[in-house]
Amino acid sequence: MHYQGKAAFLISKPLQLMISLCIVRQGIWDEKPVFIILDAFCGASSVADRLLSAFADLQQPVFFKHRNQAFQYVKQKAFDHFFIDSDIGVKNYLLLLQQKIAKPSLMIHVYEEGVGTYRDDLYQGLKQRMLSALGVGTFFGGSAVVSSIFVYDDEEYMLKFPNNKHKVRKILEPLLLSVRRNYSVLCEVFDYPGLPDVPSKSRVCNFYLSGWHLDKDFISSIVASDSLFFVKPHPHSKDEIYLPSLYVLRGGVPFELIVVCALKLFNVVRVYHVNSSAQRYLDDKAIEFLPLSDFK
After folding, report:
1. How many CB atoms lie within 10 A of CB 267?
2. Domain identity same for 203 and 175
3. Are residues 213 and 84 both part of a single domain?
4. Do the Cβ atoms of 143 and 84 come closer than 8 Å?
5. Against a cut of 0.90, is the pTM above it?
6. Which residue, 29, 24, 69, is CA-closest to 51?
7. Are 128 and 138 in contact (CB under 8 A)?
8. How far apart are CA 100 and CA 189, in angstroms?
9. What is the number of domains present in the chain?
10. 77 with 3: CB under 8 angstroms?
11. How far, CA to CA in Å, does 202 sit from each of 198, 243, 269?
């Protein structure tokens, strides 16, 4: 698809950066899209700096501390296309409506950023009906000011939101394939040297993917076990762990990148997680996903 004029992508998570790259590769652009990196995940500023040289043929980065600053920048630069991670709720609706008032021809696109994109239970009942009637997004891509939504599983999305079929655009390149193809450059972007050397001959690797907060009880069980475990905090998590017996990875490195590395070293990768989106994108028979709730 040909996108005329100037385009910008709002990015607040490592996963969003990788998905944005997939979308850019499948489009035709008059100008290189601008990647607006928000200071919303660990190492975001450094990632923006590295994007000045990495993937420089696909994008040009800018960095902002706050979301409101980014929206003001989009308005000032009068972009023709604006790709965002979410149009859910009244606050997002008002921010996006201001953009449309400033430039009525602006095309606003939502792009997939995890399991939440397919949720149909964010609003329910009378509140859902009232907000929808006002044009507020009660599901991803549902806002009246949004032109399209980019998803990997277009069939699932259209099944859940049949009235929104006309907005659906499919992301063509599977994320795992994209990470494998661009592994070395992504390692550069996220300053990821690979898994640390471990004194183990195990062919099984275990990961704990935390939610916004670390589960201290589960971590205690990890410490007590003899298994090889890596702890991967959520990108937005501010909890810190310092235990000599644990291998704690940086939260700002996307897990999809870490897994590609792990699959080169281990026969089996087990992932203990709390509603992680990674399961949607890591389709490999060597990876086992185990919900933490099963161990409560």
Report:
1. 10
2. no
3. no
4. no
5. yes
6. 24
7. yes
8. 33
9. 2
10. no
11. 10, 21, 11
> And the tokens for 246?
């644990």
**Which of 179, 210, 244 marks a domain boundary?**
179
Count Cβ atoms below 10 Å from residue 125 Cβ, excluding itself. Answer: 7
DSSP code of residue 239: -
- Give the three-state DSSP class for 76: helix
- Helix and strand tally (H, E) in the chain? 11, 14
- The structure tokens listed for 85 are 């991670």
Q: Which residues pair with 214 in a beta bridge?
A: none
Please state, in angstroms and as integers, the Cα–Cα distance from residue 244 to each residue in 184, 227, 241, 248, 263, following that order.
29, 15, 10, 10, 25
Q: Where are the beta strands (DSSP E) in 40-193?
A: 60-64, 81-84, 107-111, 148-151, 168-170
| 116, 137 Cβ separation under 8 angstroms | no
Same domain? 113 vs 209: no
Question: What residue numbers bound the domain in which 94 lies?
Answer: 2-179
For residue 187, being part of any structural domain is answered with no
Digit-coded pLDDT (tens) for 23-34: 999 999 999 999
Round to whole Å and give the CA distance between 57 and 54: 8
Taking the C-alpha atoms of residue 155 and residue 14, their distance in angstroms, rounded to an integer, is: 25
Sign, CA dihedral 193-199-203-206, equals negative
Angle at which helices 89-102 and 67-77 pack, to 10 degrees? 20
pLDDT at 223 > cutoff 70: no
Residue that the structure tokens 């590609």 belong to: 260
Polymer length in residues for the chain: 296
What amino acid is encoded at 218 in this protein? F
- Please indicate, yes or no, whether residues 95 and 19 belong to a single structural domain of this protein: yes
Q: How many CB atoms lie within 10 A of CB 211?
A: 15
**pLDDT per residue over 65-122, tens digit each?**
999 999 999 999 999 999 999 999 999 999 999 999 999 999 999 999 888 999 999 9
